[in-house]
Design goal:
- There is one protein chain.
- The protein has about 400 residues and is mostly helical.
- The chain has one domain: Growth Hormone, Chain: A (Up-down Bundle).
- Helix 1 runs antiparallel to helix 5.
- The relative contact order is 0.17.
- The N terminus is likely disordered.
- InterPro entries: MFS, MFS_ArsJ, MFS_trans_sf.
Length: about 400
């Protein structure tokens, strides 16, 4: 193989560490923004469906960004997309931080959320694609590297939820956004100037049509990813936080802390996936499609069980906390396996485009889950969201049965 992914260059590890640091900072800001926006509009009297609408552009532009961003990364290199992501996130935060109160209506915040979605996916794609430059085509090493990156990212997103709840408790919405803007822009200044050369090979011959994969395994994994992430966001984005706040009477601080702890734990499990899942009979212990399918079918039991328990009148606090902890463990393992498989399936010469296509599907799943989270919660409450989650996971498992077993 002649691609840059086949042989790791000396500067790749250094650049990868800097990209990852930038990605971590953006991830913290992204988690904080989500909780701040959700509860700011909840306090303004918005319904669950209206709250879901605020995040629609965030997910829609995530789809577009992964599609176009993968092409741009292949054409101009990953450093370019990283810088663009951090600058765009800073702009989105300043839009919200400097806006007078009269401007903070749904349309304006949806536009800011669109920029935030673009920024998050540009930085994520840059860092995820960079893993392949470090690990190359060694399955065991690739599995460990991507598990550590994905797990740390989700743990830090949990820190972002915690930070968002804290900021909303001690200062204003606009001040919170300005503090987060300083974090993101400061990280850009602290990382990008120290990168040497370029991260990844810029390919002037890359064509946009190459974004759409011809690889059956990549396409099947992307389809499974849509339903896997819809199964999480259909209860996580609107249903759960609103239920905790309105039905159980939790404070912003309590809701933010619970969601933070859940996501941090989820990230720790993801990072530990290579030790927790020792796949026998596969390439150097790395998982295959069969592992993804089995985890999905096991996961489907959890939201259905939680919904049944809530319907039976059991203590909702114990049911939700206990059930969602187990859900988080199995979901984290499933997501870690997916994150490894896309890089294992990716064509070395088109890794950024394959990853961009895959995370476009990921964003599509989040979009479906986000909209349905508001619609179903407003219609029939949290139980409806959980039943939808169970159905989505079963579909993801069915698709995963078609993935390669080697």
């Amino acid at each position: 193989m002649t691609s840059a992914t086949a042989t790791r260059r000396p500067g790749d590890l250094r650049n990868y560490a800097l990209v990852t640091a930038a990605y971590w900072a953006d991830t913290i800001a992204d988690g904080a923004i989500r909780l701040l926006v959700l509860f700011f509009f909840y306090e303004q009297g918005y319904t669950p469906l209206q709250l879901a609408t605020v995040f629609v552009f965030y997910e829609v532009f995530g789809i577009v960004t992964n599609l176009v961003g993968g092409f741009l990364a292949a054409r101009f290199g990953l450093t370019t997309t990283l810088i663009a992501g951090l600058l765009t996130q800073t702009a989105a935060l300043l839009m919200l931080g400097l806006a007078p109160d009269a401007w903070l209506v749904v349309g304006y915040v949806m536009a800011a959320q669109a920029l935030s979605g673009i920024a998050k996916d540009l930085t994520k794609m840059s860092s995820k694609s960079a893993v392949k430059l470090v690990a190359g085509d060694r399955p065991g090493a690739l599995y460990r590297w991507v598990a550590i990156l994905t797990g740390s990212k989700n743990a830090l997103k949990g820190v972002g939820f915690f930070l968002g709840g804290l900021l909303l408790s001690v200062t204003s919405f606009q001040t919170s956004m300005l503090l987060l803007a300083a974090l993101v822009f400061g990280t850009l200044l602290a990382t990008v100037p120290f990168m040497t050369g370029s991260l990844g090979r810029a390919d002037a011959g890359a064509k946009f049509r190459h974004m759409f994969s011809n690889d059956r395994a990549v396409n099947l994994l992307a389809a499974a990813r849509i339903f896997l992430f819809a199964s999480r966001d259909v209860w996580f984005v609107v249903g759960l936080p609103v239920f905790l706040r309105t039905v159980l009477g939790w404070t912003f601080w309590q809701v933010g802390t619970f969601m933070a702890v859940w996501v941090i734990g989820y990230g720790i499990v993801q990072a530990s996936a290579p030790r927790l899942i020792r796949a026998r009979g596969t390439a150097k212990g790395a998982p295959d499609g069969g592992v993804a399918a089995r985890l999905a079918f096991a996961l489907a039991v959890l939201p259905a069980g939680i919904a049944i328990a809530l319907g039976a009148g059991l203590d909702p606090t114990a049911v939700l906390v206990g059930g969602l902890i187990v859900f988080g463990v199995i979901f984290a393992l499933n997501s870690a396996v997916h994150s490894y498989l896309i890089l294992a399936y990716a064509d070395g010469d088109k890794v950024a485009m394959n990853v961009g296509f895959y995370y476009m599907a990921n964003a599509g799943g989040r979009l479906v889950g986000t909209i349905l989270s508001g619609v179903l919660y407003q219609w029939q409450g949290l139980e409806a969201c959980l039943w939808a989650s169970a159905v989505f996971v079963l579909v993801a498992g069915g698709i995963s049965l078609l993935l390669p077993r080697r």
